[in-house]
Each structure stands twice: as C-alpha cells, then as structure tokens.
From TrEMBL:
Keywords: Coiled coil. The keyword Coiled coil applies. This is L1 transposable element RRM domain-containing protein. It comes from the Eukaryota. The keyword Coiled coil applies. InterPro entries: L1_C, Transposase_22.
Amino acid sequence: MQAELTSHFDSKIGELQSTLITMNGSISVLSEQVSMMEQRISENQDNLTNIETRVTFLEKENSYLRDKVDDLENRSRSSNLRFLRIPERAEGRDMVEFIQRLIPRLLGADNFPVPPVIERAHRSPTTSRPNAKNGPRPILVKFLNVQDKMKILRLSRDKGDLLFDGVQVYIYPDYSAALLERRRLFDPIKIKLREKNIQYSLRYPASLRISIDGKFTSFRCPKDAEVFLRSLPNGAS
C-alpha cells in the first residue's frame, strides 16, 4: 500500500515538475516578448519625439517663408495705389489716360503741373459681374516713381473727401490680402482712439503708433494696444 502511494505521489510530482518546466519556458518567452515590446515602444517614443521636433521646425520654417513671400509681394506693390468707388466704365477705353486726368481733378491741378507717369492701370479682376450691391471694382494703378505714389497718398489724406461726379471716392495703398487682414485687426482700437481724440498712425507693415502728450508708443498686437488704452487716465490725448 505504501509503495503504491509513493509511486502515485512520484507520478504527480513528476507531472507538476513537467508543468512547471513548461510554464517557466512560457514565462521566458513572454518575458522576451515583453522586453522586445518595451524596446519597440521606447524606439517609437524616440521616433515620435523626433517627428514632433521636425514638425515644429517645419512649422516655423513655413511661417518664415510665408512672411517672406508676403513681404516680397508687398514690396512689388510699393508703387501701387487702389482707387475705390470709381463708377464702372467711367474710364472709357484708356484707363491710364483716365487716371492721369482724374488725379489733378481730385487733388488739384496746381499740384501736378506734369502728370505722374503711370506704368499700367486696370480694374481689379473678379469672378462675378459688377453690380449695385457689390459696387464698382477697384482700379489698381502702378506708378513709375514711388514718389508720385507717396505724393498722391499724402494729398488725398490732407484733402479729406474726394468727389468724382458727386460720388465720394477713396485712394489707398495696395497691400496683399494677408497684410490687409493684419492691418484690419487694428480697426476696433482705431475707432476708440478717434472717439477719445487720441492721435495715432498705422505704420507699415502693421503697427499702430499712438501719440500721448507728444510721446509715441507702438504696438504690433491689437490686444496690447487695447490694454494700453484702458490703462490711460480719462482726458488723456
């Protein structure tokens, strides 16, 4: 009887030992797989960090290149002006001749004994037909000399209202769409400055210069200008 029990226990112990050996082998395999997965995860994390660093670099480079292209575009427009609200077909068949006659008419013939030299002039292209709702298309004018452009811009600002056949027209610099949007962000603060009779100027490319008691402060960010305006005591001008 004792021999049978011993044999039975030896058999069971052998089975357990065999099972343990199998389990140890499985655990070793799992351990190796876990180690490999941890290594791969570590490598993926390193790769992800490298990719994030690369993306950050590319975003900065892309932003720099966009700014550079926009700057070059605006430099190419440095001799240009936009004439707004000139009725369609008022120019007849020769836009250049029309503009050369229009400028002395708007700004005074005495200021232009010799007509400014215009390289080209045309209506701004559009995909839709001009109508009363959209208003007439702007006229883009490129001058041969930037001095003529600056003179016309200065006289138009000094004179104020410019009338052509009873219609108020406007003359503005010709900026890229991106720069124009940056400058428009200052419109709300400009309204508040005018309400408070505070002198200001919007300088190229897009900075607001405020004059308080003869002291100038410049802002490239509209929010900073808002904070500055709120900090002023009442009656500042």
